[in-house]
Amino acid sequence: MQFKNTVLLTFFLSFYIGYSQDSFERIYTETYQVLLSSNPKKALRNTDFLYNTAKNNSDKIKTRMLKAHILYQYGINNEAINALKQADSLAVIGKDFAVMAKIYGFMASLYRESEIYDTGKIYLNKAVATSKKIKDKTEMYRFQGNLSQELACYELHDSNYSKAISHLKKGIHLFEKAAAVSDKNYQIAINDELIARNYLELKKADSALYHYEKAQKELQESLSYDNPLKGFIYNGIANVYVELKDYKKALLHYKKAEEIAEKSDYSALKQEVYTSFMEFYKKTDSKKYIIYNEKNLKIVKAENDNKKMIADDIIKSIRKSHQDSQTQYQKNTFIFIGICIFVILITILLYIFKRKQDYKKIKAFIDNGNTVPTMETEIESKKEASKEYMSEATENAILENIKEFENAHSFLNKTLSLNSVASELNVNHRYLSYVINKHKSKDFAGYINELRINYIVDRLKNDPDYLKYKISYLADQAGFASHSRFTITFKKITGVSPLTFITYLQNNTNKEEYIAP
Asked: Does this model's pTM top 0.90?
């Protein structure tokens, strides 16, 4: 079955070989056609180089698929799966269902090879579901035809030979439906060869022979007649004749299979043929059994040693790459941490500077006497007021009323307005507004807000309990309808926020430092 895996994986990969793009395509083609077998380590380096220089996601996916194929060839399946996951993350972005389906099919093969069947089946089902979304019908049928081989391999593992045959026959039908599949006869020959294997497992030798001969004819009519598949077919026909006890014909076909195997470099075919000879001679010719057993062990050892040597070299290269990446990551991390520390220090220094500036504002506000100037001082300083608008007696009377209004803390009333205060003081609201503007240098709203803030500042300075209250409670106590309006007004008048002001007072345990003289 190893031959079928390679055919299927090559199909998944072959989708990406098709268009030219100067140096990128030249390096890619050289890597795939030459270095893949002659210098896998360099091929692997090339895939990373191509990935970093790729100009679009399609090219990036090609390089990850190629990398996965190289790693798979030398049994490094975990890294191959990681490369495919990278490809998948890129394919999902572009919603390229044809690419996604091929990636999932490839992963299903890798997990099966790694004997992780449950996870493999998950990806196999994803491949089937995604393949139905491929818009190009010919491409969809071609892919689903190849996918039938992977479905059959899973059923074969579970000894569900009849289900495997059903999948493969459906695959042949899909290949026939495809409008233009490159070397369709070869693809159908693969399916018929697999069908024959399953019939042989079911001890249906006649049906197996029919499909082997059908596969042989299809391969002969294909563009790949000299493909190692021909050797597998001869070996399978020989196995059928053994089952039918026609040992002469069996030996004839084994010899044909051996001839093809010896000429090829395909170790999987050699192993299968040598194993078949071992079974054939096991009870009849011990010497020949030993010869083929030694041949089989030699080819298996050579294959394993070669794979191990190359795999070890590739793994070292991968580890070095990971270590370099980790070193660079650590450098970047240290730089990032250094920048963060620098930013934090600057932030702390700015915070300390701002706090000092705020505390200076607070101290200046307190030292300058935050209360509204006393009425006596204002009355003396405003004697020259115009008498054209109202009499001096009237103006002085209003000022006296305002003083009483302040002393009574009537400004803490939340529903306060110019008209309501004028009514309370029994004066014309225009006269009241005029006197406030003239003597307080503020409009009515500004005057009231200043009284309220000064009131709260006085409470904070002289009543320690007020330092424990929430800002919303202080706002309510000062006569403000909302927390936000109180905070804005407080900062406008004092230069700092209520919280900063409170913090300052809490930190100055010696009240003499901030109580106005």
From this structure: no
